[in-house]
Here is the input.
Amino acid sequence: MQYKLGVLKGDDIGLEVVPAAVKVMKESLANFPEVDVEWVDLPIGHTAYVESGETFPQETQDKLKELTGWILGPIGHMAYPKDDPKAINPHPIIRKVFDLHSNVRPSRSFDNVQSIHKDVDLVVVRENNEGFQPDRNMFAGTGEFMPNPDLAMSVRVISRRNSTAVAESAFELAMQRRKKVTAIHKDTVYKLGCGLFVECCRNVAKNYPEVEFDELIVDSAAAALVMKPQKFDVLVTTNMFGDILSDLTSGLVGGLGMAPGLSIGSEYSMAQATHGSAPDIAGKQLANPYAMILSGKMLLEWLAIKYDDQAMLQAAQAIEKAVSEVIIKGIMTPDMGGSATTEEMTEAICNQLSKKI
Ligand code: ATP
Ligand code: MG
Here is the structure.
């Protein structure tokens, strides 16, 4: 298998944390020379706009189709002219075009990282293309419109197809973990939308008798996550609830710098940390590379499972182990309670990986 992996740095802290993640991935893969990876740099975001007048150049759009997967940095949205059609946010388009229906967002606590809770190890699996981002062909923009200047309406789309796909992603993940899935919804209010979503989850649950399945209303889930996050393993939910709850769970374990993510479909996979471009700390070596490095690790793990590649799996697992060891040593960025720069933390992880296993 020859893997072709894209590197799309994006903007602001993306220019620091994406190269950090790629460096770590390459360092780990160097221990497995049988894994053949070609890396392809592709421009995107504000940085690309300044260079070529487009945030999502056609060349980038075409090349993505030839890749096995890619790592994508955050897109800064401050400086774009609002009315320029070439200054678009590429994220929703990529998720849609490549049918990346599930967004997997783990939250894991470390004893010596400042956080509200310890012993947290859970994953939010969020539907990625519906809810507040309905089909762009069906509804203009985000599915919102104003019938008159005093009334705004938002259309929420939930389909059987995507609800089933995201539930399957969650149950597959649970099989590799502690075998528990909790579906989060609000079918007391959204009887049709959430009703359909949870019906799909129940149907998928029947195919996984060894996985414990339960359901929770989103407001109760928010309270339970703050009070007793340790009781959760995999949570599966719709787009907007997942957006909010996954930021909440990152807050439980130390903040956005601790929140990796992977968007997956049946063919493609995209590593993308939960955080945005954080312009306030960009260029200062303050960005926590953990989220992006672990997103890269999730990409390698997904590829390993898809292509049944044991060496790739070991390369992925070695990254997680090295990161944990560096955190235990206390080499971490200020948001985690340490004093290391982005580069120092990255370098320490690479050094850990280059000690042959
Ligand atoms: P977006 O709308 O693009 O999601 P946002 O408004 O949610 O952006 P972020 O860019 O995600 O905001 O960042 C919010 C704050 O969290 C930042 O200002 C920064 O202080 C902190 N932050 C985010 N990512 C990191 C990181 N990797 N390391 C350290 N701090 C971070
Ligand atoms: Mg955000």
